[in-house]
From TrEMBL:
This is Amino acid ABC transporter permease. Coiled coil: none annotated. GO terms for molecular function: transmembrane transporter activity. GO terms for biological process: amino acid transport. CDD domains: TM_PBP2. Residues 25-213 form the ABC transmembrane type-1 domain. Belongs to the binding-protein-dependent transport system permease family. HisMQ subfamily. It is a multi-pass membrane protein. It is found in: Cell inner membrane; Cell membrane. Keywords: Amino-acid transport, Cell membrane, Membrane, Transmembrane, Transmembrane helix, Transport. InterPro entries: AA_ABC_transptr_permease_3TM, ArtM/GltK/GlnP/TcyL/YhdX-like, MetI-like, MetI-like_sf. It holds the Pfam family BPD_transp_1. The chain crosses the membrane at residues 20-49, 61-85, 194-213.
Length: 223
């Protein structure tokens, strides 16, 4: 037991490298704060465009959503960070990571919001049109508010996954939390920094995970 504590919960090692872990935590939060609204807005735009039911547009949107969801986000990051410079466009590591995360998650958010919109009875659209509302007004004033409420549980769940996806930034040498913990481990020759990083993830995401669970239970009760 003493050996286990010495290797995985070594206080001296933690005190030596905690500034590095806090720096990594700050970058992880910054990546999430920037990528999350971009992903949401992008996905919402896809879902709204789909809701107008223009056949050619819908086929293109479905192909886009399937493509970005099929691509592993790590592969997207490699293509963006290492592939785009070959085409004359070089992005910084932070921008590339945000773009990869936003591209990948826009597909998931787009499908979540699309499912919410499609779940609204068509009669409500017809009622809106009978009141003289235009199609975009029907979507914005009648359909979207209801669809967003229905999509809240899967939306929150995907947002939780997005925060964990920020760890891919280590691939382009960004010192996010996981990479910082690995660097700290190399400095201390002890896995305690990795355990500390795991604990920080739990502290950061546990309240969010509980909120997701509550939303999912409410959604099941409403069915």
């Amino acid at each position: 037991m003493e050996l286990f504590v010495e290797n995985f919960f070594n206080l001296d090692s933690l005190l030596q490298v905690y500034p590095l872990l806090l720096q990594g935590l700050q970058l992880t939060l910054l990546l999430a704060v920037v990528a999350l609204p971009l992903s949401i807005l992008w996905g919402l735009a896809l879902a709204v465009a789909y809701s107008f039911h223009v056949r050619i547009l819908n086929v293109a949107l479905i192909c886009y959503i399937d493509l970005v969801r099929a691509f592993p986000v790590v592969v997207l990051l490699v293509l963006i960070f290492y592939g785009l410079p070959l085409l004359g466009l070089k992005l910084g590591g932070f921008t590339a990571a945000v773009l990869a995360i936003a591209l990948n998650n826009s597909g998931y958010y787009g499908e979540i919001f699309r499912a919410g919109i499609e779940s609204i009875p068509k009669g409500q659209r017809e009622a809106g049109r009978s009141l003289g509302l235009r199609d975009w007004q029907v979507i914005a004033l009648i359909v979207l508010p209801q669809a967003l409420r229905k999509a809240l549980a899967p939306f929150a769940s995907n947002s939780l996954e997005l925060v964990k996806t920020t760890s891919i930034a280590a691939l382009v040498a960004l010192p996010e939390l996981l990479r910082s913990a690995r660097v700290a481990q190399e400095q201390t020759y002890n896995p305690t920094p990795l355990m500390a990083a795991a604990a920080l993830y739990v502290v950061l995401l546990w309240p969010f995970a509980r909120w997701v669970a509550v939303l999912e239970r409410r959604a099941q009760m409403q069915r």
